[in-house]
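Exercise 7. Given the encoded structure of a 377-residue chain, write a plausible sequence.
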């Protein structure tokens, strides 16, 4: 054994992560370090006998994905890290990050190496953070919608009183009503500005995509929106696939896109109208439809909807202000996910915004680097 080989073997043995080498022609693990015992409670000397039981612990929803990755790996075409889950009886799943290596020997012998890191703690921390963020974003939109409507109503009543109710001479009532009207308008602008700033701040952070199940990710914010809007007397429903559907998402950014689309739908739907979210798997992709029974969008405006500071911007039915940035940012974030955002609308009958995302059925794709933007932005 060369000095270099001895050095790297010693380094691998000292690592707290699992390092292994698999000989493809013989279908044997020819090296695995001591971390295999510490992390997976296995015996390095018995690893080949234990391998079938270990593979049986793979999460059922990950098996097709990993089978596709394996085909690429043995051809030397798998270059990205990937995440996988192992089941544990009576315990939460273990999450691992696999860094793959490939070596073709002089006689055509294929060796597959890898480093397996236990990322369970980080994964569950991230899931909890994503859950918190999605609930926070939903609550912000709900409060924005509800409070904006209340302040707009106060402003409208104030204008009515100033115009319709006679006031005695030498009274400060008109002046006070004007102050109240302006305070209502300023409050609406402040609320919407805070929500817009939150959306902008999240959109400008680094994109971090992971392979996730669509239903598990979208159910919490959709349920939160439904419960809140039922209290407000608005009709909001959603439907998710019965079978697991996997995509690669930056969870925080994408749930903000969904919340923004739902908020827009409610903003332009009269009281008593219906808004629904329908998630439909299709071959190779998944479609997320946000449908409303609102006032619709004039045909002349539709080609400009996703432009920054679009001329198609208009206030909501209850006077909610708009910056003209929301749909542009939604499209940008969907583009980052290699997806497509489109709209079908008929004036007076409602609109349907559709997000199309590729399913994560093959090897993981590269995420965009921080600061990258689509060409049209």
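Solution.
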């Amino acid at each position: 054994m060369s000095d270099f080989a001895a050095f790297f073997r010693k380094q691998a043995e000292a690592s707290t992560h699992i390092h292994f080498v698999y000989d493809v022609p013989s279908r044997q693990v020819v090296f695995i370090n001591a971390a295999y015992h510490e992390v997976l409670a296995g015996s390095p000397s018995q690893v080949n006998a234990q391998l079938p039981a270990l593979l049986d612990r793979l999460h059922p929803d990950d098996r097709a994905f990993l089978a596709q990755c394996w085909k690429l790996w043995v051809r030397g075409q798998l270059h990205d890290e990937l995440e996988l889950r192992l089941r544990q009886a009576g315990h939460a799943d273990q999450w691992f990050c696999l860094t793959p290596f490939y070596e073709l020997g002089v006689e055509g012998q294929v060796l597959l190496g890898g480093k397996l890191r236990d990322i369970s703690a980080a994964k569950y921390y991230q899931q909890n953070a994503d859950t918190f963020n999605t609930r926070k974003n939903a609550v912000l939109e709900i409060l924005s919608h509800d409070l904006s409507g209340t302040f707009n109503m106060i402003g409208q009543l104030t204008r009515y009183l100033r115009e319709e109710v006679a006031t005695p001479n030498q009274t400060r009532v008109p002046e006070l009503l004007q102050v109240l009207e302006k305070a209502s308008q300023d409050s609406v602008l402040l609320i919407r500005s805070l929500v817009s700033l939150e959306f902008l701040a999240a959109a400008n952070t680094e994109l971090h995509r992971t392979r996730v199940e669509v239903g598990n990710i979208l159910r919490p914010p959709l349920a939160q929106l439904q419960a809140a809007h039922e209290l407000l007397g608005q009709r909001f429903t959603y439907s998710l696939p019965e079978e697991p559907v996997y995509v690669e998402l930056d969870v925080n950014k994408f749930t903000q896109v969904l919340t923004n689309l739902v908020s827009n739908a409610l903003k332009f739907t009269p009281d008593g109208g219906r808004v629904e979210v329908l998630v439909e798997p299709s071959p190779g992709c998944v479609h997320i439809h946000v449908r409303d029974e609102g006032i619709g969008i004039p045909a002349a405006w539709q080609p400009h909807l996703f432009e920054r500071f679009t001329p198609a911007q208009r206030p909501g039915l209850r006077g909610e202000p708009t910056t003209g940035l929301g749909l542009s940012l939604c499209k940008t974030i969907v583009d980052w996910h290699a997806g497509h955002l489109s709209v079908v609308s008929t004036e007076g009958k409602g609109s349907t915004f559709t997000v199309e995302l590729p399913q994560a059925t093959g090897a993981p794709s590269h995420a965009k680097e921080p600061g990258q933007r689509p060409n049209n932005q």
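Remark. The two ends are 55 Å apart (CA to CA). Students should compare their own answers with the one above.
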